[in-house]
From TrEMBL:
This is methylmalonate-semialdehyde dehydrogenase (CoA acylating). It comes from Verticiella sediminum. Coiled coil: none annotated. GO terms for biological process: L-valine catabolic process; thymine catabolic process. Keywords: NAD, Oxidoreductase. PANTHER family: MALONATE-SEMIALDEHYDE DEHYDROGENASE (PTHR43866), METHYLMALONATE-SEMIALDEHYDE DEHYDROGENASE [ACYLATING], MITOCHONDRIAL (PTHR43866:SF3). Its EC number is 1.2.1.27.
Length: 497
């Protein structure tokens, strides 16, 4: 018997009165785990109103108290990792080990939020003019919102609301309607940690709820992670309504492999980054560019991919779990078919993978294409599945040109033992996040996520120092104080004396 997912408004888990519901389905079994409501317009308004009421007092909460709240929250999340991972795997499909990694990477951002006392400091200069001091304050914006994708149901919410809230804002979160139960479990821990009423609120739904968050006059800023189509819509609509918007979107991440690379390390990294999480990562390595003699390593890539175990995420030893839905599987299979039609060579075909005991699961096995050209659909579109494309280049310059010609700019990697080649690559490559002998170069939280070009709209990333800039506004104060002995005269110029 499935249950109904609630809304979170003013620290109360509220049953929605909507007439529109969606089943939350286990991707490995098709079992219905719960129903999620598509919140009504009034329910979204109520959540935003709760956040607005809470902001009036939360903004004045001492920074030390906000930090202690995050310390309690991070301790509770860490203590509940196994339980959270089980929920996450059931509704999203990734392996239990990967689910725990999902949580831990988000938890690192919460830990960094605990140091907001130093991150939110302003600047001060004494005597910018005679007796005049100038200083800046970093103050919260108000009610902020987050719109999350399905592929990281713990990490992405933890990128968003802890940084916003610790900066003094209040928050309305919209998890993916495909797997919202992990976010609701995190909300339970937030309340247990002592989050005041209205500081964190959660609504569920589709486009209508997204549009309501983008247009509501009380929402000051929106953080989005997801597809390029939706991210562009959110950025445009939110910006038109005066919101700050950061939009992290699609990708086509390349890994350039030079022939002097450590072969075993490079191949293991390629296969792990290409097929982990069934390829459903915006930072997945989806294209390998083999340079020079490294092109001879294609059979080794195929063999490593062939050995990966496809199974339900709860089964021991699983490397590749199911994709999120039947619709996602159908789309991936359609793109694989287009690759064969357009002339790429299918080196490893994962379309007919069989998983005993899970006949209804949304499984696609590791798939490898060679002979890929830049105009093929498998290259121009983000497949978001366990499909690795292999391209070839004669030189490093040619490989760099291939990567820079692609419109996306989320992440890229190079595998080499040459410092000179690595330095040339990091200098000339036009991609926001570069890995050197690292396949998925997601920065640690005290840096910032820095995707670029077609992978990002907005100039600030979702965590690190850039997140503090995004979730605060700078106020500059210029002050002069007088004592009774100070002489004064009328000054009609703009100069301070």
């Amino acid at each position: 018997m499935s249950t109904d997912v609630k809304l979170l408004i003013d620290n109360q888990f509220v049953a929605s009165r909507t007439q529109e519901w969606r089943d939350i389905v286990n991707p490995a079994t098709q079992d219905v785990l719960a129903r999620v409501p598509f919140a009504t317009a009034d329910e979204v308004d109520n959540a935003i109103a709760a956040a607005q009421r809470a902001f009036a007092t939360w903004r004045h909460t001492p920074v030390a108290a906000r930090m202690r709240l995050m310390l309690r929250f991070q301790a509770l999340v860490r203590a509940n990792i196994p339980r959270l991972a089980a929920i996450l795997t059931a509704e999203q499909g990734k392996t239990l080990a990967d689910a725990e990694g999902d949580i831990v990477r988000g938890l690192e951002v919460v830990e960094h939020a605990c140091s907001v006392g130093t991150l939110q400091m302003g600047e001060f200069v004494e005597n910018v003019a005679s007796g005049v001091d100038t200083y800046t304050l970093r103050q919260p914006l108000g009610v902020c919102a987050g719109i999350c994708p399905f592929n990281f149901p713990a990490m992405i919410p933890l990128w968003m609301f802890p940084m916003a809230i610790v900066c003094g804002n209040t928050f309305v979160l919209k998890p993916s309607e495909q797997d919202p139960m992990t976010a609701m479990a995190l909300a339970e821990l937030a309340i247990e940690a002592g989050f005041p009423e209205g500081v964190l609120n959660i609504v569920h739904g589709g486009k209508d709820v997204v549009d309501a968050l983008c247009t509501h006059p009380r929402i000051q800023a929106i953080s989005f992670v997801g597809s390029t189509a939706v991210g562009t819509h959110v950025y445009n609509l939110g910006s038109q309504h005066g919101k700050r918007v950061q939009s992290m979107m699609g990708a086509k991440n390349h890994a350039v492999v030079l022939p002097d690379a450590n072969k075993a390390h490079a191949l293991d990294a390629l296969v792990g980054a290409g097929f982990g999480a069934a390829g459903q990562r915006c930072m997945a390595t989806s294209v390998a560019v083999l340079v020079g003699e490294a092109r001879q390593w294609l059979p080794d890539i195929v063999e490593r991919a062939r050995r990966l175990k496809v199974n339900a995420g709860t089964e021991p030893g699983t490397d590749v779990g199911p994709v999120i839905s039947k619709a996602a599987k159908a789309r991936i299979l359609g793109l694989i078919e287009s690759g064969t039609t357009e002339g790429a060579t299918l080196e490893l075909d994962g379309r007919d993978v069989q998983v005993p005991g899970y006949a209804q699961g949304n499984f696609v096995g590791p798939t490898v294409f060679s002979g890929v050209k830049a105009d093929m659909q498998i290259y121009t579109q983000e497949i978001f599945g366990p499909v690795l494309l292999v391209m070839q280049a004669d030189t490093l310059d040619e490989a760099i040109a291939i990567v820079n010609a692609n419109p996306f700019g989320n992440g890229v990697g190079i595998f080499t033992q040459s410092g000179a080649a690595a330095r040339k690559f990091q200098s000339e490559i036009d991609v926001g996040q570069v890995g050197i002998n690292i396949p998925i170069p997601v920065p640690v939280p005290f840096f910032s996520f820095t995707g670029s070009r077609g992978s990002k709209l907005g100039d600030l990333g979702p965590y690190g120092k850039q997140a503090v800039q995004f979730y605060t506004q700078t106020k500059t104060v210029t002050a002069r104080w007088f004592d009774d002995a100070t002489t004064s005269e009328v000054n009609t110029t703009i100069n301070l004396k």
